[in-house]
Design brief:
The structure holds two protein chains of two kinds. Chain A is an alpha/beta fold. Helix content of chain A is about 50%, strand content about 10%. In chain A, strands 4-3-5-6 form a four-stranded parallel sheet. Chain B has 13 helices and eight strands. In chain B, the strands form two sheets. In chain B, strands 2-1-3-4 form a four-stranded parallel sheet. In chain B, helix 7 runs parallel beside helix 13. The longest helix of chain B is centred in the middle third of the chain and has 21 residues. Chains A and B meet through strand 5, helix 9, strand 6, helix 10 and helix 17 of A and helix 3, helix 4, helix 11 and helix 12 of B. Bound molecules: iron/sulfur cluster (SF4) (2 copies).
């Protein structure tokens, strides 16, 4: 298959032909990546990709999600739009037969992937949702145009301790005539003195009262799904659903462990970001998402065994906080000599296994409450410190999301904690959906960070 | 009496008072409140900042209650947590106000708030004491409602501020060139939005100066921020439940769904013969910002969307826009 490398779209399309001639088998959604450009995914022309068939499958799987959703609609399946909770409600939905769940929130990346040719932000502007909101405003545009995903049969959205951007935009979507089942997520609070403590999968603690409340809310969500589908979400189904979700989470866990620790780096940052996203909603096909991750894991294990990777040895180990609105910035990090060594893309609660020795709704409530964004910035910062330490990170990048209400409050606090507790250099950047105009400045700042780490290594 | 500072109409002052503590909801006098060091003012709500600055400035405050009505205030509340500062309670107000689970959640939060108040020196009230306090506040609010027809704009805002324990004189600046012709007839205006901070109470003057009068104050400090009268039977049987039911039902843009706000607004506007709606919002407030188009589309009267920053030129800009809006209404 050749040595691991990062290659351009053109190179991939040539390689795709060669691999097919050499007998590569592809799933139904397979094919050359270049075909997605014809569908409008113009940013692909400016990205660098891992050259493995496993990465090709990952990309094709991601970029064919809309087709999959439309096929599901044609096949008479129930389509559930889960919003904001990032990883919890899809586990319930996929425990049912003939249900496909997806996040309309995923439109967050559409303006980047389609290089604004989608005009979703322009539609959002026309709704009064201007750039003072984060890129998730593209979701409102997608509901209006109806061009990106089929309008779901049901929308379920978590509210309460969520960002104002999302809550406000989701309400606008409901105001446009798309009813939403809202469920409450309280701000996570540590137990009061003398109150029993529940330890959550991500290591945070919470009061049992909040776990009980969220589990009741999730039961309410389950009832709504039962009414929609006419099926019962009983304990057997739920346990089976958890098992499936946990297989994905465990595979991803091992993939992250290798990709973020082995030197040379066996898989690029961009593919890892996408792989992590599969844990949230399985890209509208749970069994296939597992197969995609397993193929990636095989590839990474083999590369680790052979001591080969996609980057130079000793690339600077960076812990990355928040997803980037422009995927190309993950390439840029590697171009300047960095690599990802640990991440908090705001959904680390979807990466932890769901406890299977608890009452199912309690188990899921614990996962939901593990969300780094529903707690304090201090909690999130502490966890980032611990993770950066565990992954042996040498620097931390906090990527601000334009317009995101929480970013103004987090960066400085988390940055200070990291400097104080780990003594690591921290860089805070802001990444717009298309970062070309700021790229020279961004590159200079990333290079400076790399230089700081190299100097520290030498001293 | 030791004082408890709080930020929102969703925190019942009678519950604090029933614990023998003085409730105080600052009316926000500090227009240039700093952010926490290192946090840019861009993206940071000025009212949330002003609350932190003002509540930290009073020495007799023994505890602070921050109702997490939005993500910004939830995050800003962390700035108050400091060993040298009074204890802080983050009070969750469910956004999903229609379910029994939400009501129970709010009630549980009230109980948690009660325990907090006891920890900072308050005394747990008997049901009878609570009932007594609730009835006192209810009467005051009823009286205030009765005054709505003749107490308008700034005096009305001041009366509500006093109900929330802000007893200081209204020393906030008037609108530049403020001279109201009391004899002239006024165009009835509804003022909508979150809190109008005291440093922007010149807004009321400016509206009057240009021939308008706020006949419906639908801001957080206005009529919208007053809970409905308590259910008499519930008050007798279970005062805490009566408290929870009345407060959680207050219409707010943050509720999900928030149709209740629109119904409430349209009904009141029709009743008061409102001819123009001014939406006053903070520059970085997503919750109100996102609803601008919907408010405009659903209102039967012209709407002025006034996004107010705290920079020095904000009053002049706003005055110009108010003048043009009022002229258009005449
Ligand atoms: S990026 Fe931040 S502000 Fe935007 S939807 Fe996600 S959590 Fe909310
Ligand atoms: S004005 Fe808006 S952002 Fe500011 S505290 Fe109120 S709801 Fe929050």
């Amino acid at each position: 298959m050749g040595a691991p490398a990062v290659i351009s779209l053109q190179q991939w399309d040539r390689r795709h032909g060669e691999l097919c001639r050499a007998g590569m088998m592809e799933p139904s959604y397979g094919g050359p990546l270049g075909r997605h450009v014809q569908d409008g995914d113009l940013r692909l022309c400016e990205l660098q990709f891992d050259n493995s068939p496993a990465a090709l499958r990952l990309w094709n799987f991601l970029l064919s999600e809309e087709d999959r959703l439309h096929d599901a609609r044609m096949a008479g399946k129930c389509i559930v739009g889960t919003m904001k909770d990032l990883g919890t409600v899809p586990v319930l939905a996929y425990a049912l037969d003939n249900v496909v769940a997806f996040y309309p929130d995923g439109a967050w990346w559409t303006p980047c992937v389609m290089r604004h040719s989608d005009k979703l932000l322009r539609v959002a502007d026309s709704l009064g949702l201007d750039e003072s909101f984060c890129p998730v405003r593209a979701m409102a545009g997608a509901f209006v145009t109806g061009n990106h995903f089929p309008i779901p049969d049901m929308l379920l959205c978590s509210v309460g301790a969520v960002c104002d951007d999302f809550s406000a935009i989701a309400q606008r979507i409901e105001g446009l005539g798309h009813p939403i089942v809202w469920w409450e997520m309280p701000p996570r609070r540590s137990p009061a003195p003398g109150e029993p403590t529940v330890l959550l999968p991500t290591g945070f603690t919470v009061s049992p009262q909040q776990v009980a409340f969220v589990s009741r809310e999730l039961r309410r969500v389950a009832r709504a799904l039962e009414q929609l589908t006419g099926q019962r979400l009983d304990a057997t189904r739920l346990q089976r659903g958890f098992q499936q979700a946990n297989k994905v989470r465990q595979t991803l866990h091992e993939l992250r462990r290798l990709a973020y620790t082995v030197d040379p780096c066996p898989l690029p940052a961009l593919e890892m970001l996408i792989a992590e996203m599969l844990a949230i909603h399985f890209c509208s096909d749970q069994p296939e998402s597992l197969a995609v991750l397993e193929a990636l894991l095989d590839e990474v294990q083999q590369r680790a065994q052979e001591g080969v990777g996609v980057l130079e040895k000793d690339a600077v180990r960076v812990f990355w906080i928040n997803p980037v609105a422009d995927l190309r910035v993950m390439n840029l990090l590697e171009k300047v000599g960095g690599r990802i060594a640990g991440s908090d893309y705001m959904f680390c609660h979807a990466l932890e296994p769901i406890p299977q020795d608890l009452e199912p709704f309690e188990a899921l409530a614990r996962c939901a409450l593990s969300d780094p964004m529903v707690g304090t910035v201090g909690d999130r910062g502490q966890r980032a410190c611990q993770q950066a330490k565990d992954f042996g990170s040498e620097a931390v990048i906090i990527s601000r999301i334009p317009g995101a209400s929480h970013c103004a409050y987090e960066g400085d606090v988390i940055g200070k904690m990291i400097r104080r507790e780990l003594g690591l250099p921290v860089l805070e950047i802001e990444v717009p959906p298309i970062s070309d105009t700021v790229e020279p400045a961004l590159r200079t700042r990333l290079e400076a960070l790399m230089e700081i780490v190299h100097t520290r290594r030498r001293s | 009496m030791p004082c408890v500072g709080y930020n929102s109409a969703y925190v019942p002052p009678e519950w604090i008072a029933a614990h023998q503590l003085q409730p105080w909801r600052p009316t926000l006098r500090i227009s240039d409140a700093a952010t926490r060091e290192g946090v840019s003012q861009d993206g940071c709500c000025s009212c949330a900042r002003a609350f932190v600055a003002e509540v930290s400035s009073r020495r007799d405050v023994v505890g602070i209650v921050v109702a997490a009505v939005c993500d910004q205030i939830r995050r800003v509340s962390e700035w108050l947590i400091d060993p040298s500062s009074p204890p802080v309670l983050l009070f969750h107000v469910p956004a999903t106000w229609q379910t029994s689970a939400a009501r129970q959640c709010y009630r549980d939060e009230l109980l948690r708030l009660g325990r907090f108040l006891e920890q900072i020196g308050g005394q747990s009230p008997t049901p009878q004491q609570l009932r007594h306090n609730m009835m006192d506040y209810d009467r005051e609010r009823q009286a205030m409602r009765a005054m709505f027809d003749d107490l308008r704009g700034r005096p009305h805002a001041d009366a509500v501020a006093k109900l929330h324990g802000d007893m200081t004189e209204d020393d906030s600046p008037a609108a530049p060139d403020h001279a109201t012709d009391e004899s002239a007839s006024h165009t009835p205006i509804a003022l909508l939005g979150s809190t109008v901070p005291r440093y922007q109470w010149w807004l009321y003057d400016a509206i009057e100066q240009h021939g308008g009068r706020v006949v419906l104050d639908a801001t957080d400090y206005g009529e919208r921020g007053l809970p409905r009268p308590f259910d008499a039977q519930l008050l007798a049987d279970d005062p805490l439940e009566a408290l929870a039911a009345a407060y959680l039902a207050m219409p707010h843009v943050r509720q999900r769904p928030n149709d209740g706000l629109f119904h409430w607004l349209h009904e009141r506007m029709a009743h008061r013969h409102v001819r123009g709606l001014i939406l006053r919002r903070n520059l970085w407030c997503d919750l109100w910002h996102a609803e601008v188009a919907r408010i405009k589309a659903s209102a039967c009267v012209p709407v002025l969307d006034l996004d107010l920053d705290v920079d020095a030129s904000a009053p002049q800009r706003a005055l110009g826009r108010i003048a043009a809006f009022m002229e258009m209404l005449h």
